[in-house]
Structure formats: structure tokens, C-alpha cells
Amino acid sequence: MSLRSQALAVLVANQARAADQSLGPSDRDAAIFNIDEVQAMLAILDCMKPNLRPKEARQIAARIRALLEGRKGQPLRIGCP
Question: pTM above 0.85?
Fold first, then answer.
């Protein structure tokens, strides 16, 4: 399974959790935050070329790390370099 397929599966699961009214508000809020993270990672993955050079791979890894380490509630600008 590709990284993109895995991210899409996580996105679908979090969308279901965000809509699940049996969960508490904090659980639904966490799912919504996770949706934003996954969508940002998908945007990064969409920019990837099939045959990355080591420097490009490091740049993408750094962008994903920045996304995962970002503070909750702070939007990240994601776009192709």
C-alpha cells in the first residue's frame, strides 16, 4: 500500500470520527485536527516526483516533520516548491 493510499485511509477514518455524534466534542475536535494534518500531507505527496533525488527527499521529509511538529490551530502553507 502506498503512502498516499495510507494517508487517504487515515483521512476517511478521521472524517467518520469527526461525524460520529456518539463521541465527545474533544474526540471530534481531535479528528478534525487530524483531517487537516492528513490533507496537508496529501498536498505534499501530490508534489512528489516519481524518482526523487536525495536532496528532494530530505526537503519533503523536512516539510512533513514541520507539519507534524506544528502547533495545533496554526495553519501551514502547503504547496509545491
Answer: no
Assess whether pLDDT exceeds 70 at residue 81: no
Rg, C-alpha atoms of the chain? 14
Name the nearest CA neighbour of 41 among 17, 9, 68, 19. Answer: 68
Domain housing 40 = 3-69
Question: Domain for residue 77, yes or no?
Answer: no
Number of domains making up the chain: 1
Establish if 80 belongs to a structural domain.
Answer: no
pLDDT higher than threshold 70 for residue 56:
yes
CB 39 within 8 A of CB 11: yes
Euclidean distance between the first and final Cα of the chain, in Å?
A: 26
